[in-house]
Amino acid sequence: MSVFLPEDSLVDLSRLEGGRTQISVRPEGRSQSWVIQIKNSISADRTLTIDQALDNIIAQRKAQRVRKVGDKPEVSLVREFDRSDELSTGSVEARSAYVDVPEDADFPVTGYTLYRTGPGQFVVIQMDCSTRAFPQVRSMYEALAATVKFRGSEELSADRASALLAGDALLKQFNAEDFDKAADDKTVFLRVYRPAPSGRDADAQEIAYQRLHARKGFAGEMNARKKQSDWTSADKEPGWLVRIDARALAKDTVIDTVSLFFLSRDREHELWSINMGLHKNGATEQWTETGIRHARKLTVKTTQSGGEPTSTDWSPLPDAYISRVEAFLFPRLVFATGSQGLFGFYSYESSLSKITLRRDSFAQHKDGSWTISSQPSENSGEIVSHFNPAGDLTKRTLADASITEPIAPERLKKLWSDKKLPLN
After folding, report:
1. What is the DSSP letter of 149?
2. pLDDT above 90 for 289
3. Which one of 144, 184, 217, 367 has the lowest number of neighbouring Cβ atoms within 10 Å?
């Protein structure tokens, strides 16, 4: 999807629950007379029509302002007006409508423009503005909606196939020695934060920190409680290990995560475990995910406090599947070859509990540094990562505008200690 946004406007991109994205557009400066939100919406009902979807949105809005007189049924004070089904967007269905409260000038006027992009899939462009600003903002909003273009399914399929072929071909070029070099047995600390307007670290919002380590190892190291003397032949299988320790802050909850990933040297077998503890008000909830892959069959199991365990199988896995360890080491592998371009893979995404199509676009600059633009899933926002000529991460900007940067552990400890944040 492409759209032309108003000049002199501020744009924010954020990631919503379920891998959805939202773009917010506001006027530059102090004026807050309008806001436009562009977001994708996914319904479990794949038969939902665009008219039904718009009816549901309007019904929810009408329920927000009602009046009850005596024993009569409640009457909504919200008015729907200027509904249109004559929008032209090629093969994509589109509808629009406006709502307001005629007797309350302080209630914002809202415009909705819906596009049905697939079964149960919609793009919503919502405009909210003051009653006074509505005539002028409406013209701008409808002009914006008129610029929306969607790429055809054949074009998207061709792009997807091209990226997958390129990714699969490149991944197959790497051998065990390449992975040995990429898994360099070095520990890296990362700081995740949201910058403050002042630009000062002391004013920034700390979100999380991570410790990353990749090295050669054995499958048996996935179970720290098992003595090496008790290892089976399967435990002695050599390969590569990736470990990520992380602590994140979410309102009044502290989230600790330990993630371990293993890939055999023939890359036919992989294991992983992710253990997450959510600490709140002295209580801890646990969530665990384990993955086991043999050749082209993957089984993922999850357990959580107070919930029933789940188990899901994928067999056979799609071509161009990339393991968790391969995905982690892929930037270093690519840097060593100097390959540039767009590479696509099918990978398991824990946040979505499913296999998704991911894309990574590599570009090398004249000074030898690199930029990778990544989309972990088809409905996720873009992540932009910068690396120095040596292949070390220098900065990563997430879809929600948070920043990830490498940091010395001593400085990280001081930052969190000075802000009286909980360290582990």
Report:
1. B
2. yes
3. 367
